[in-house]
Amino acid sequence: MVQHPIIIITAPSGAGKTSITKYLLEKYPQLSFSISAATREQRAHEKNGIDYYFMSVEDFRQKIQNQEFVEWEMVYEGKYYGTLKMELERIWGQNRVPVLDIDVKGAIHVQSQYPDSSLSIFIEPPSVEELRRRLMSRGTETEQTLADRVNKASYEISFKDHFDQVIVNEELSKAQAEACTIIEEFMAKG
């Protein structure tokens, strides 16, 4: 079986993985964003099939039963996220490299399925306190969701050594430049 390349970018919520992922996608046309499936509520600025494939919990569970996911997790109680196999096939069919912006457990799972063709990058916040500040500045968190995300982040940081590369995102432009170097080395091997 031909092993297609995959780039996995993971981090605790608020560490900057989405900003870095967007930067890489704009800079490298051969990369393509892998759209995740999610059961959470669609936010006002989000578009189905562009930001996420939004679906009901029932639809998501049916796809789990049908083994349609490369990885999936219940990231928060009752909130499922996952990467559909058909999404990776769609991107590979365009001769592009999928970039997965996913949670830590999902990233470990995908990496274990594609050990020879994946590159995994963990984006680490400079500190848990800085992460808390970034999450608060979004204005989207309640005290409880903030506490949940910070606790989860501390736990996720403990897995950073499971990944091929770790980038500490203290200053976004430096983290982006570091990500570019890592991506270019990976693509040169391809």
Under CATH, the homologous superfamily reads P-loop containing nucleotide triphosphate hydrolases
Write down how many β-strands occur, each being a DSSP E stretch of 2 or more residues.
Answer: 9
State the CATH architecture. 3-Layer(aba) Sandwich
Instruction: Tell me the β content.
Output: 15-25%
- Kindly identify the CATH topology: Rossmann fold
Number of helices: 7
Task: Describe how the helices and strands are arranged.
Blueprint: E1 6-10, H1 17-27, E2 31-33, E3 36-38, E4 52-54, H2 57-65, E5 69-76, E6 79-84, H3 85-93, E7 97-102, H4 104-113, E8 118-124, H5 128-138, H6 143-157, E9 165-168, H7 172-189
Parallel strand pairs: 1-7, 1-8, 2-7, 3-4, 8-9
Antiparallel strand pairs: 3-6, 5-6
Helix pairs in contact: 1-7, 5-6
Commentary on this structure:
- The chain is globular, with a radius of gyration of 16 Å.
- α5 runs antiparallel to α6.
- 44% of the residues lie in helices and 24% in strands.
- It is of the alpha/beta class.
- The mean pLDDT is 93.
- Strands 2-7-1-8-9 form a 5-stranded parallel beta sheet. Strands 4-3-6-5 form a 4-stranded mixed beta sheet.
- It is built from 7 helices and 9 strands.
- It has a single domain, classed as P-loop containing nucleotide triphosphate hydrolases (Rossmann fold, 3-Layer(aba) Sandwich).
